[in-house]
Amino acid sequence: MKKALSLIRERWYDLGVIPAVIALVCLVVFWKDMDVLQRLALINFIVILLHQFEEYRFPGGEPAIINLAVQPKSKDKYDRYPLNQLNAMFINVVATYIVYLLPVFFPHVLCLAFMSVVFGISQLVIHVIITPRKIGNKIYSPGSIAVVFGHIPVGIWWFWYVISNGMLGVWDIVIGIVYLAFFMRVVMLKIGYGVLSPEDSKYPFPEEEFERGGYVQKIRNLKK
């Protein structure tokens, strides 16, 4: 059990390839049996898994980008603070298997899908506008390909479909915004970057993972 938990904490983004492939197969096989909203939700679920793979595996570099460039908080424990293996896994797994998977099963509960598509679209700001400047790139940071070619078109398609068909109501928007605020304030900040983010965390990123993508040196060169 302990080994299984360690594997999940260390390789959750690699393991995510499995449900991504399963979801893709389901999308192809059952395409005609799904309505538009369920197709979009399933595509968005696949995109978030690819997004995380892009951030943490290939090209990777998200741990260094967060701890050295976006939210630098420690000079000597940058391999574990504020982002460490445990809270990175927690935030992303909750986002994937609650925020993005629930709309697949409940596509017509529009507040659920509203939250996930808005969350996906909003990542354009951090991945394409803010982060590249902090790491010495012009427009790219790990995760931005999934955002630009996945979350954005899915989100636009979803909004076009529900609005043009008169499906999106005021309460869907209100509840969706409250849901998004709860996720960001409680799950991400209070638990992820709060309870699970002590400066002396026992779950640092190993050197190979932390330096993946070559961003450590790029960020340090910018600060010289």
Account of the 3D structure:
The chain has 224 residues and is an all-alpha fold. The protein has one domain (2-223). The chain is built from eleven helices and no strands. It starts with a helix and ends with a helix. The relative contact order is 0.16.
Strand and helix layout:
Elements (H helix, E strand, L loop, with lengths): L1 H14 L1 H13 L6 H21 L5 H9 L14 H16 L1 H4 L4 H26 L8 H21 L5 H26 L11 H4 L4 H9 L1
Helix pairs in contact: 1-5, 2-3, 3-8, 4-11, 5-9, 7-8, 7-9
Q: Which parts are unreliable, with pLDDT below 50 for 5 consecutive residues or more? A: none
The geometry reads as globular
Biggest β-sheet: count, sense, barrel?
A: none
- Count of individual helical segments: 11
Count of discrete structural domains? 1
Give the tags.
single chain, 224 residues, mainly alpha, 11 helices, 73% helix, 0% strand, globular
What can be said about this structure in brief?
With 224 residues, this protein is mainly alpha-helical. It is built from eleven helices and no strands.
